[in-house]
Design brief:
Strand content: 35-45%
Number of strands: 15
Strand order of the largest sheet: 3-8-5-4
């Protein structure tokens, strides 16, 4: 009798250990494989990021983290890439700067170098870009997924905002800004002259051809040749 009870307890313990191991394995698969697929794979879809639990968060959720409902990602292609790590003992002199602004065939391209958070594998925390167009002003911003605590190393990244079908029928006072995730504002130093975008330092002729102009710190400065 005792031998039979002993055998039954062995069966119960064996089954318990089996199902416990199975449960741990399922949780591991969900946490490691599904989470990474959500964050970096094709399953995220358009304009979605993933938290550390593998939960997909898309525009309608993320836009609540952007201050103004006027921000949108319509017609925007946003990409980002790692540049380099930031040495805490030698911080960057300028954390955010515009490196290129150009317009071709109604497509506006803006390249911004900015401070971000990376992991040890030189990967930038997943981001989504947004923009809003106001009178004589374009404001760009991003929302980063920092739920994953492995993204804890400050780094520099390059972000490319490509807005398709952007109407460049703007005045010479039109400016482009970047709004950081803490609502700080950074101004581009580009110029608009006769409907054309000029980057800081560009030299060009005036419309009537009698003056030589240069874009300096966001201002068109022209002098007679």
């Amino acid at each position: 009798m005792k031998g039979r009870l002993y055998a039954n307890w062995l069966v119960i313990i064996t089954l318990f250990l089996f199902f416990s191991s199975l449960g741990i394995f399922v949780v591991y698969i969900q946490d490691v494989i599904v989470s990474k697929q959500c964050a970096y794979g094709e399953d995220t879809g358009t304009n979605c990021i993933c938290n550390s639990k593998g939960e997909k968060i898309c525009d309608e959720d993320i836009e609540n983290r952007v201050n103004s409902s006027e921000f949108t990602s319509t017609n925007l292609i946003y990409t980002f890439d790692y540049q380099n790590f930031i040495n805490p003992s030698n911080p960057v002199s300028q954390s955010t700067k515009f490196t290129e602004i150009s317009s071709v065939n109604n497509n506006l391209k803006v390249v911004v170098e900015m401070e971000s958070m990376c992991n040890e594998d030189s990967m930038v925390a997943p981001q989504i870009g947004f923009y809003k167009l106001e009178e004589e002003k374009l404001v760009l911003t991003v929302v980063s997924n920092l739920f994953d605590e492995t993204y804890n190393l400050p780094c520099m990244s390059e972000s490319v905002f490509l807005i398709n079908g952007f109407d460049m029928n703007v005045g010479d006072t039109f400016r482009i800004q970047y709004q950081g995730e803490n609502n700080e504002i950074y101004f581009s130093n580009n110029c608009i002259y006769e409907g054309y975008i000029r980057n800081d330092g560009d030299v060009y002729n005036s419309k009537d051809g009698t003056q030589l102009c240069q874009c300096l710190d966001g201002e068109n400065r022209c002098e007679r040749e």
